[in-house]
From TrEMBL:
The lineage of its organism: Eukaryota, Viridiplantae, Streptophyta, Embryophyta, Tracheophyta. It comes from the Eukaryota. It comes from Gossypium stocksii. This is Uncharacterized protein.
């Protein structure tokens, strides 16, 4: 095989390797973007979950306060009924 043929083969191989590397690089970018986007979505879900937890806690506290106030009012009304 002549030197020129060997050089041509090597240049072709290098070209193929560059193309493969560029394809791999593009796929890697896509995977990184997918990963970053999924992290953003996860963070949004975590924020929403935290907000829902806070709302549930507030509703729980409000329900407890309302229940206590209602209990007190029921006791007062029972007392008034007992007087009549």
């Amino acid at each position: 095989m002549a030197v020129e043929e060997r050089v041509a083969n090597l240049e072709e191989s290098i070209g193929d390797m560059k193309e493969s590397f560029e394809d791999w690089q593009e796929q890697s970018k896509d995977y990184v973007m997918m990963f970053l986007n999924s992290n953003v979505e996860n963070n949004k879900l975590i924020e929403r979950s935290d907000a829902i937890k806070a709302m549930v806690m507030a509703l729980k506290e409000e329900t407890i306060a309302t229940t206590r106030a209602s209990s007190i009012r029921i006791q007062e009304l029972k007392g008034e009924l007992a007087l009549h």
